[in-house]
Amino acid sequence: MSAGDTASDGGLALSPITTDTVRELLSDRRVFPAVPAELDEDAELVLDSLGLVWLLHMVEERYGLVVEPSDEDVVGLTSLRRLTAYLRAAQTDRRRQRAAEGGGDER
Question: For 3, which of 35, 66, 71, 83 could close a Cys bridge (C-beta 3.0–4.6 Å)?
């Protein structure tokens, strides 16, 4: 599956990634085993490597977005707000790329 495409291509890639959706993804016990119900957006967040891999897998499955963060990117993913901003930026970049290729809109 290429970046930006979903398995069903049913429009899931058009759904915006929000703080609430990232919070929901984090609540999966395979990502973050003990995420607080009301995780503050700026609270320190420490994901282990397996949790991060599983989170990125879930982002790909749900949004059709393949994200391959650099080591520098990973170091900056220290809060819900920063993680959401990173994923939202990756989603926006992918939409722009698809629009430039003539394969979709730029929403």
Answer: 66
